[in-house]
Amino acid sequence: MPESNRHYAIIVKPIGSACNLRCNYCYYLGKRVGQERSIMSYEVLESYIRQVVEIHGECAEIEFAWHGGEPTLAGIPFYQQALLLQKRYAKGRRVLNTLQTNGTLLTDEWCKFFADNDFRIGISIDGPEQLHNAFRKGVSDEDTFMQVMRGVELLRKYGVSYNTLTTVNAINAEHGKEVYGFLRSISNYMQFLPVVESVGEESGIGLPPGIYSPNIEKPRQMAQFNVTAEGYGKFLCDVLDEWRVNDIGRKFVQIFESAIGNITHRPAGLCVHEAVCGHCAVVEHNGCVYRCDRFVFDEYKVGNILNTDLNTMMESNRAFGEYKLESLPSKCLHCDVVDICFGGCPKDRVLETMTLYGVERHNYLCAGYKMFFRRMKEVYEQNIVLL
Question: pLDDT tens digits, residue range 36-75?
Fold first, then answer.
């Protein structure tokens, strides 16, 4: 039987990697799992919803997280089917639906549907117009900022709850204050995602099909669109300094919440900075299950929900999650912020160094994490009453 107190965060990709945009740094666009624009079948959808409810045991709230690609390409009727299945299997328990979108396809009909069914929406936006348009392009290389902002205005019009998801990349990392100033004008809840990708030499820098699995043994280099470690640290520190002066208790930044949680021994649920992971997984549109959204590669596939029990697959994910802590490089064990950072995401441990213990892999963002988490500790100590 599933553990009644174990929480899972299972992302579902109802349309796979299909997307109406061609963002230069996209880590998912090159993953062709089945045929592009092949919408999840009713059989897979029913199995997914039934099994997600089952593995949550007696939990009072069950979350369904719809991602892509661009999940709105599945169409409103698809989500209407999903809601009916959730009602059938959840049997009165609270169901929370979240959906991550680039915002460019949002319409009055979509936003009314979200409002009527209490969806919470994540909007991908990389800052003000010039910074956003640097990498977030359409299929013909057109800019997308104005389309995204139209989507944001529609969400506001219908009172839909939303947060912003911003990649920190080679361009906007130098403009932390400007990015935060823009985001705080449109959002109360913000997430920042550092762009760190390895690309194969034969594919050319910046081409999504060349993005490699974190553990693959092939010649590779870091993509030109990546944020640098120091650039990421400075970006977060710049945002933190703006936030602490103007917005403590008013605006919420996910990595700040996570850091404060770890400092106060109340983890805030950001897997990247937890001791272990493994409670997350991805269900692709064809039912295949992968260990993590950032590990959708053949070597990390654990089965298919049409012929393997989801609870069994998630139990098998424990070892994957525990490896995060077990594989910490030796230098992390002597770091003053290891209990806040926990080594970051294993997919970013792409730098190899020779130590007394042999070859170890450490996190590309290490220098930036040290910079930020040390500053975060200072801010916490200075504002402990407010925080």
Answer: 558 999 999 999 999 999 998 888 899 999 999 999 999 9
CA distances from 17 to 14, 28, 74 (A): 9, 6, 12
> Is residue 60 a contact partner of residue 5, using CB atoms and an 8 Å limit?
no
Is 141 an annotated catalytic residue?
no
Q: What element of type H or E holds 97?
A: strand 94-101
- Residues 258, 269: contact at Cβ < 8 Å? yes
- Contact between 48 and 308 (Cβ < 8 Å): no
Which amino acid belongs to residue 183? L
Residue 310 contacts residue 1 (beta carbons within 8 Å): no
Whether 205 contacts 195, CB under 8 Å = no
- List alpha helices for the chain, DSSP H: 42-55, 76-90, 108-116, 129-132, 145-157, 176-186, 229-246, 254-263, 310-326, 338-341, 366-382
pTM: 0.91
Paired residues of 165 in beta bridges: 124, 191
Catalytic residue (choose from 293, 298, 309, 339)? 293
* 190-237: pLDDT as tens digits: 999 999 987 765 444 333 334 445 554 554 678 899 999 999 999 999
Hunting for tokens 């069914």 — which residue is that?
A: 117
Q: Which residues, at least 6 apart from 312, have a Cβ–Cβ distance to it below 8 Å? A: 303
- The answer to whether 383 touches 241, Cβ cutoff 8 Å, is no
Task: Identify the CA nearest to 370 among candidates 340, 325, 330, 329.
Answer: 340
Residue 291, sorted as left (phi over 0), alpha (psi -120 to 50) or beta, turns out to be alpha
- Please give the Cα distance from 288 to 34 (Å, whole number): 10
CA 97 to chain centre: 16
> Using N-to-C axis directions, what is the helix angle for 229-246 and 176-186, rounded to 10°?
50
Q: For residue 345, give Cα distances in angstroms to 165, 235, 289, 328, 365.
A: 17, 18, 19, 11, 10
